[in-house]
Amino acid sequence: MKKKDENSEKELKESIDNLTHIMKKIYDLFSEASEEMYAEHDLNSSRVMPLAAKLDVLIEQNKILAKSILKVLDELKEVKKEEKNLKMLIEKEKLQALSKELEELEKQHKENE
Hints:
By secondary structure, the chain is mostly helical. Helix content is 92%, strand content 0%.
C-alpha cells in the first residue's frame, strides 16, 4: 500500500513538473513572439496592438497558473505530511492496545499458575 502511495505521489509530482515545464516553454514562446512583434512592427499598428495585448493577457494567465500549481504542490506535500503523522498515531495506538492485551494475558497466565 505504501509503495502504491509513493508511486501515485511520484506520478503526480512528475505530471506537475511536466506541466510546469510546458507552461514555461509557452511563456517563453509568447514572450519571444511579443518582443519580435514589438521590434518588427510599429507599436501603434492597429493589427499589432490587439495581438500584443492578447499575448500580455496570456503571459499573465500563465503566471497565475504556475503560481496555482506551486500552491497545489505545497498543499499536497502538507497533506502527505499529515497523512504520515496520522498513520504514525494510528500505529502508536495499535501498539498501546496490543501492549495492554499482552499485559492482561500475562496477568491471566500468572493467575492460572
